[in-house]
Amino acid sequence: MPDDDEPPLQFPDDFRVAVAAQLAAIGYSVVCWQSSGVDVRPPADNEQQYIGLENLHRRVKASERTEWPRIIREFLDHLTGALQAPAIPDDLTTISARLRPRLGVPFDHKGKTHPWGIPLPGTGLEINLVVDFPHTMAYVTDSMLAKCRQKGEDLLDVAMDNLRSATPGDFFELATEELEIYIGHTGDGYDSARALLVEELLPDSPAGFWVAIPSREQLAVWPVSLGAIARVQVLKMFATENYREHAYPVTDDVFWVWQGTWYRFGITLRDNDLVLDAPTPFGDALRELQSDEPG
User: Fold this and answer.
1) b/e sequence 178-209, b meaning 16+ C-beta within 10 Å
2) Beta strands 137-139; 125-132: pairing state
């Protein structure tokens, strides 16, 4: 009987069999299936490593069954650089310049090997640490932190500074002249993480910002204004569509960021009426905006 403590498997048997076959072909063995990926052991190495499979599963579901081996093998070959990348030293401070934050849905922490992470309050998301390589990255795990006797929170401060340094001054561009929605995109794998820097990267907005991060490579931000409230559903539509269509999805939620705090911001259209489920402090922010209005 399966262990009641094991996470539920979201992948069907035929997909797991196909992945296991391609892993075996390159010398990797399956240690444990997790809800969103698999723990593996590389050839001639006793250190377990985690491979996320959700995006691969999305790809193969849209393909013919005969194409699965090729798609899976290409995916694993791409990851080989990460799994066989230069060994990460026990002392992570020696490669501190490579540390970056990653923002996404929380990992299942029931397995033996899982990335370190802390919640981003108010969002349901998690901030992780990764080691950046030229063509890939590797998650920093709890076991890595234990070896180097460092706190993840301390290294996260370093990673955030690295992200600031790697963010170009013109990162944000206006999406249209009509709406003051800013789009941020570099394609380096850390665009969604730059949502953590929104209040630093954009001019001051007294009532904060609406933020959408539908996928790892997408970030949209709209400074809150009285005029924008009636059209904020545009940002929700952007989040929903891109979350559904793009690889490495993060969330279709829209958030409100104000004075360093994140909140979920509910936006729905009901019978052609815009319905907002705004957090309580949003009213205070609007009153500040109204008091600043001339006249």
Assistant:
1) eebbbbbeeeebbbbbbbbbbeebeeebebbb
2) antiparallel
- How far is it, in rounded angstroms, from Cα 89 to Cα 40? 20
CB atoms within 10 A of CB 115: 22
Q: Distance (Å, rounded) from C-alpha 123 to C-alpha 276?
A: 17
pLDDT digits (tens, 9 = 90+) for 21-63: 999 998 888 998 888 888 888 887 667 778 888 888 888 888 8
The pairing of beta strand 209-212 with beta strand 182-184: unpaired
How far is it, in rounded angstroms, from Cα 212 to Cα 192? 9
For residue 153, which phi and psi values (nearest 5 degrees)? -60, -35
Q: Is 168 exposed, middle or buried (0-12, 13-18, 19+ CB in 10 A)?
A: exposed
State the helix-helix crossing angle for 13-25 and 54-61, rounded to 10 degrees.
110
Neighbour-count burial of 114, counting CB atoms closer than 10 A to its CB (0-12 exposed, 13-18 middle, 19+ buried): buried
